[in-house]
Structure prediction request, 975 residues.
Amino acid sequence: MSKGTAERVAPPPLVAAGRQRRLIAGDRVFEVIAYGAAALILLIAIVFVIALFIPALPAITEFGLGFFISRTWDPVRTQFGALPAIYGTLVTSAIALVIAFPIGLGAALFLAEDSRLRFLRGPLSFAIELLAGIPSVVVGLWAFFVLTPLMRDSVDPFLNHTLGFLPLFQGSASGYGFLTAGVVLAIMVLPIMIALSRDVIRAVPRALREASLALGATNAETIWSVILPYARVGITGAVLLSLGRALGETIAVTMVIGNRPQITGSLFASGYTLPSVIANEFTEAVGNVYLGALFYLGVVLVLITIAVNVLARLLVWRFTSEATAA
Amino acid sequence: MSHPLVRAMVDRVVGGLIVLCVSVAAIPVLVLLLFVLINGLPGMLSPGFFTDPPYPQGVPGGGVLNAIIGTLEIVGIGSLLAVPLGALIGIFLSEYGRNQIGDTVRFISDVFTGLPSIAFGIFGYTVVVLTTHHFSALSASIALAVLMLPVILRATETALVLVPNSLREAGLALGAPRWRVTLEIVVPAALGGIVTGALLAMARAAGETAPLLFTAFGNDIIQTNPLQPMGALSLTIFRNALVPYPNLQQQAWAAALLLVALVAATNIAARIYVRRIQR
Amino acid sequence: MKRVLIALSLGVSLLLAACGGSSGATNPSTGAPAVVVPTPPAAQLTGAGATFPQPFYDAARFAYNKKFSQVTVNYQGVGSGGGINQLTKKIVDFGASDVPLKASEAAAMGGSDKVVQIASTLGTVSMAYNLDGVADGALKLTPDTIAGIFLGKITKWNDSALAADNSGVNLPNQDIRVVHRSDGSGTTYIFTDYLSNVSPDWKAKTGGPGKSISWPVGDGAQGNAGVATRVTQTPGAIGYVELAYVLQTKMKQAALKNHDGTFVIPSAAGATAAANAFAGTTPSNFSIVNAAGKDSAPISGYSWIIVYKDQAEKTKGTALVDYLYWLTTADGQQYAVNLHYAALPSSMASYDLTTLKGVTFGGSALLSVS
Prediction:
């Protein structure tokens, strides 16, 4: 600190002298460094795009947009289509959301709302945070050894027995496949679903809630008629963000999906997802077209995830800022 | 639907459903941790687990020392790359970034956060492995650094933004140049948040598998040279789960327990640090 | 009689060893004479590829490092396709594949004159299954039934085609869960080579042998180990797995009907019999499936190691050829034999030696062995 100067803002460089000038130069240097760091992340992003896109070109030129609708994944005949992997990704993510949405929303309502059993809030929040921190490969390990036999021996036969009139639940179950992968994804996505929904519900103005209760509505009616409609946009955003997470989940899904590029109506069947194809076949893809096809899948995956995430953040951000402004 | 008794009953039912949801939500983590603990302890307590590399089939014993060293080194180098850069970018965003460049950086950071982890593996492979003609721990560290960057960056920005402006103004009022105010007043005030962000990012990186599959590649020998392929706990778990040998499967569970313990310890350390700072 | 011979050769080798040093050892199980193995320079070698020989490669690199602590070998089983791919990009020092290079793969490496391939071991593929109530070796499979199962035509264990070959065996009314490889695999190649040979149906449907094919039915698992795990964990499963994995994990395997009509249980001896039925095996003439001979295991094959003919670094290159020489001679081969692979026939061993001598750095050979 300089001695006894009364200036509140650094004076323009021209006027400063000696030590002052050096310190101001320090400002310049620091600003350059800071901007440099920002430039670096921009550079990393550009390199990222190039590294992903360029190797995909041989496949893009070979298959074009037909890649998205072709059902064949045949390395021998060098015929590649993304549809089985896209199908698997969508199906498993859908199952995950169907399971995680109601449970997540319910838990979020409890965490944000409920006046009873308040002492449980802390432990539950902690448990959810813990779940979020468990690495994907550990969840996959557990799913591979514990969940798969459970699905094969108990859950799948039960579903077949009770809901077997639906083509979804027909066919033999090996324990690996769309349904098991969907359950695993639901477990991984639950923490995000809960955390985001809780934030969204908390953002609903207290005044609205209290007004509803003051008018004599029960808790349930308040939730149904006031809170949820108000939070609709934000919750959609939360669901979308969870979807984004589910789309990109690689390792846990790879361990239980069954590794079979096929499109079929049965949830018990084995399948493939975009990330698991890449993980399984990347090191051994020989030839520019095969490797390019995997990169092409990567491009597809990244684009879908970005689109979903951007849309989701727009919704959540817009909702919470509107709500707090209200 | 308007009869008061019906409404009260519906209220009760919904309340019950919510509690049910809560219970169901809490089950997975408990079950998971229980299984990891029960299946992992025997392996962890077996001799040589912490001191030996894996032995081939037929040779008894073996452990995961190669993976422990690998995880620590890969994450360590990755953090050395990501933490300073991430903190710097966070500082940029909070102090200089209220403009379009800042918004672009934030957008890119958000995009990166949502990417599937395998994309970072592809990045590491294309940019480092192909050019150096070598699988290496370094390529894995670089992939993980890019993965950690957005987390650290956002945590730093958030922590810095929370520092009241009065601190900045006081520093400037006393005549200090902006860079000194930032580095010597604002950043120390925000250190709790920054360190927490860094620790959480590191914990996440330690658990990642997909970015390591075709960068670090794996190594059954104890390796410390970052320019060579290296093993890691996540790789050991992933690969050992898929082999039919009970002793290797046991090592997978034990490695999982170790990894979970590591992640939990890092999280707890972050919390303790924040509490200490806040005193 | 055999024991006397072994005792004699042990005695002779002890004498020879006592009489003064060779850095080699006599292999008691094959009774081969002592082999002098060159001492390698310090190096770290990286290899990738087939899981078919992986148990052998793991035991071998461990033993080699014990013998010569200055050399470490890191081998990852990513499948034959992966090995070839990584070698093409020059990211590993040697690639391992159960099937030698195709013309296109050799071209990608710069041409077939830029690479050399040696046979490292000889193994055989088993049909492993998971059926309660059917003992190990009790299930009999013929070329037709195997093709039928993997084509998806035979879907239940008590199908009439299976029952016809298995009178007296209690085949349950259970779905057959087929397991195949999800990664690019030389084991798959050997298996599909066999199926293409014995089933015109299979050949028409899938187009012939390949490391990665479009499977009519079944789930994919990574690596021989992955298939083995999947079969062990799934009741009613059947999969093709290399013999070493089956024996190490005590899985049940089927008796297979070979070319001559005999039902054989795959074994190292069966692999040797199969190899001996084909004269003049080279990387371009490598298939030994469906071999004649009453003892031949029908789904057998060599496993190959591929390196660049002209090495980029002298130290590493020397260590590499030294290691490969050790691997393909008695000292290294004993680890294969212990794991129920078959020892390389002497014709292949001498082919390997000649080939290894052709590996150079800057024009001069790296292997200093007579």
